[in-house]
Every structure is written in C-alpha cells, then in structure tokens.
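Recall the central idea of this unit: under ordinary conditions, the amino acid sequence of a chain determines the structure it adopts. In this exercise we apply that idea directly, starting from the sequence alone.
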Amino acid sequence: MFILGNFIFSIARLLDILITLLYWLIIIRALVSWVNPDPFNPIVQFLQRATDPILNPIRKALRLQFFAFDLSPIIAILCLIFLQSFLVRTLTDLATRLR
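Accordingly, the structure predicted from this sequence is:
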C-alpha cells in the first residue's frame, strides 16, 4: 500500500505547486493591470492566457465589477486557498494513512 500512498502524496504535492503557481500568476496579473500594460507585450499575453480560464467564468457567473475594480481575482485567490487547504491536505493525509 505504500506505493499507492507515495503516488497520492506525489499528486498532492504537484497540485500544491500548481495551485501556488496559479495564485502568484493571478496576483501578478492584478498588479500589472494597475499600470495599464501594453496588450501586445508577450508577458502580458502569457498572464492573460494563463489566468483567463480561471477568471472569466467567475466574471460571468458573478458579474463583480464594483466601480472600476474587478473583484474576480480576489474570488479566484480565495477559491485557490480553499482548494490548497482542503484538497491538498486531504490527499496528503490519505497518503500518510496508506503508508
């Protein structure tokens, strides 16, 4: 059973890294949006392509535009923190019990 435990632990670790990376990409995109970046900049395009699949559904579902502020990054970050706290820790605990 230790092989299955190690496999689940590896999946949990990869999810943790992926969620952390998405968390930082959303923060960087929000900070960059404050300075009105060039939309043809490759870094800006990468940030948009990487975060739009997460932010667009939140924008459509909640329509959270408060004056000029887009609140979807805050909702996305809160969801990612929840996933990291719940899903990753649950998988890690499951892997520990299978060892």
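Residues 20-90 form one domain.
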